[in-house]
Specification:
heterodimer; A: seven-stranded mixed β-sheet; globular; B: mainly beta; six-stranded mixed β-sheet; three-stranded antiparallel β-sheet; 9 strands; 43% strand
Chain lengths: 117, 111
């Protein structure tokens, strides 16, 4: 069965950086695009970024473009989200999700990021 | 890129049918047959319920169905059950600057 486990969240000051990881198992990781989706406390879902199955294509939400970088290591079955110049509005639960066409077929439990001084 | 518009809340009695709308534009919902729907119970990760407008993943009850007309997609839950009480989100691929967009979310209450 598909399993996705995020890690790397925590409390960070505005302007600092954080790197999230998502370890995948139970499917052929190198064949699937992978997404990051976030949810601020009590708010709705917001798509953040996608990386193609081979890592060559990456797309971002306008709200994070130029600050966040998505990457993957198919040898480690892991997808990453490097978050720089963090702002208070980036505080959220960050989910990684397995791409299925243009939908998200499986989700991890999420990792919480809090940006606060 | 603005979020797709959903009603904040929808309610129904057990056994009834309810429909949740998801309104976008001609750049997303109206152009692509790439609308998906997600169910999220409190404190849990979202679950895929419908993909590509009308398709149900294996294991999802056939009480859930999807459709689309113009710039508006819809999720219908028939034979409403207590376990259907949750938040529901639509999502679409978009030709806008943001590649994917979610709806604002709808809280479904079973009376």
């Amino acid at each position: 069965q598909v399993q996705l486990v995020e890690s790397g969240g925590g409390v960070v000051q505005p302007g600092r950086s954080l790197r999230l990881s998502c370890a995948a198992s139970g499917f052929t990781f190198s064949s699937s695009g992978m997404h990051w989706v976030r949810q601020a406390p009590g708010k709705g879902l917001e798509w953040v970024a996608i990386v193609s199955h081979d890592g060559t294509n990456k797309y971002y939400a306008d709200s994070v473009k130029g600050r966040f970088t998505i990457a993957r290591d198919n040898s480690k079955n892991t997808v990453y989200l490097q978050m720089n110049s963090l702002r208070a509005e980036d505080s959220a639960l960050y989910y990684c999700a397995k791409g299925f066409g243009t939908s998200y077929s499986d989700w991890g439990p999420g990792t919480l990021v809090t940006v606060s001084s | 890129q603005s979020a797709l518009t959903q009603p904040a809340s929808v309610s129904g009695s057990p056994g009834q049918s309810i429909t949740i709308s998801c309104t976008g534009t001609s750049s997303d919902v109206g152009y692509y047959n790439y609308v998906s729907w997600y169910q999220q119970h409190p404190g849990k990760a979202p679950k895929l319920m419908i993909f590509d407008v009308t398709n149900r993943p294996s294991g999802v009850s056939n009480r859930f169905s999807g459709s689309k007309s113009g710039n508006t997609a819809s999720l219908t839950i028939s034979g409403l059950q207590a376990e259907d009480e949750a938040d529901y989100y639509c999502s679409s691929y978009t030709s806008g600057s943001t590649t994917y967009v979610f709806g604002t979310g709808t809280k479904v209450t079973v009376l």
